[in-house]
Specification:
The protein contains five helices and 24 strands. It has 353 residues and is α+β, with helices and mostly antiparallel strands.
Length: 353
């Protein structure tokens, strides 16, 4: 009568052990590197929710763990990590350590901040510098899934499935990877992995342009940070102008060039406080001009700097209709809105139009 009971007990223990192993978050190749205990100001522990690093006393302290895993895949690795930051100072950061190299010691930190931000820092010979920061959606204490994708000397950064930026320079596509935590707080890490998929074309990983039928998406780069600021859809055959010293914004087929200039901002109000606010915000306090008058009186002088004169202007009802529909779908405030769309033909000093 005892034997069946013993068999049942053994099966129960086996099932519990299997369930516990399934719940244990994977830290991939870092599992053998991180040892629970006290490491200076940092308390290190491991459990079913992941590896936890806690610093309760040393402001500004940084700790990290890294591995040189699969060096044959340098330039095409995909690094994944889930990180949670809580009970933390405003300056606390936790996330992916990337591109770590000794002599001199340099690396990047792709992290989640305690205030609900996602950040990219570079630690060079002269110290730390921030390359990028963006706000996360949702709760500031929820776990965040980070993903870093290499493509040669370029990386693309993702947070919770949303692309947040990219960077390209000669320091990328190499070095060790791992996890890092900085400043006072509790940092929980799980699901760390380093994938090495087969080599892919550049436009598939972090595209400068992505074609969708007759429309191509182009990355608009911030010249100060080297990060993607936004993506712009353009008709196929058009591209962004890369010369920062000319007035050209776009280059199209058959030698067509496009110029871009921020429009003037005018505020027409008799309220002194409204006028003051407008001036502080960089607007001009003046009667609002029609687009036709602004084009002829203000924009024409700007184009003259490039050697162009206004030949004619014409209404663009279809473009105006689009913006009227767009405006009608937006939240409606107390201000009144009116949309005008005008096209213009210009002639250069060499006769080009």
């Amino acid at each position: 009568m005892n034997k069946p009971a013993l068999v049942f007990l053994a099966l129960t223990l086996f099932c519990l052990a299997t369930e516990s192993q399934a719940q244990q978050p994977s830290m991939g190749p870092l599992a053998s590197v991180i040892e629970p205990g006290q490491d200076g100001a940092w308390s290190v522990s491991s459990g079913v929710k992941g590896v936890q690093l806690r610093n309760q006393q040393s402001s500004g302290d940084l700790t990290y763990y890294y591995v040189n895993e699969n060096t044959a895949a340098l330039g095409r690795r995909v690094v994944n990590l889930t990180v949670q930051v809580f009970d933390a100072s405003d300056n606390a950061l936790g996330g992916i350590l990337y591109g770590y190299q000794d002599n001199p010691r340099t690396y990047f930190l792709f992290t989640v901040g305690a205030g609900g931000t996602v950040n990219l820092h570079y630690r060079g010979e002269e110290g730390f510098e921030q390359r990028f920061q963006s706000n996360l959606r949702g709760s500031t204490t929820d776990p965040v899934k980070l993903r870093l994708v290499e493509n040669g000397r370029e990386i693309t950064l993702w947070a919770n499935g949303e692309r947040v930026g990219s960077l390209e320079n000669q320091r990328l596509g190499q070095g060790a990877v791992g996890i890092a935590a900085a400043d006072i707080g509790t940092f929980r890490f799980s699901q760390f992995s380093i994938e090495s998929p087969s080599r892919r074309a550049k436009t598939q990983v972090s595209p400068e342009s992505r074609s969708m039928g007759s429309v191509t998406w182009h990355d608009y780069m911030d010249r100060n940070t080297g990060m993607v600021q936004r993506q712009i859809p353009l008709p196929s055959g058009w591209r962004l102008d890369s010369n920062p010293n000319d007035l050209v914004s776009l280059v199209g087929p058959n030698g067509i060039v496009a110029y871009q200039k921020d429009s003037g901002r005018f505020v027409d109000s008799r309220d002194p406080s409204m006028q003051h606010s407008a001036r502080v915000g960089g607007a001009q306090v003046a009667q609002v001009k029609s687009v036709e008058n602004y084009l002829a009186q203000d924009f024409a002088s700007y184009m003259a700097q490039g050697g162009y004169r206004l030949v004619r202007q014409f209404k663009m009802p279809k473009v105006q209709e689009f913006w009227e529909r767009f405006g009608a779908a937006m939240p409606q405030g107390l201000s009144q809105k009116r949309y005008e769309a005008v096209g213009a033909q210009w002639q250069g000093s060499n006769g080009d139009q």
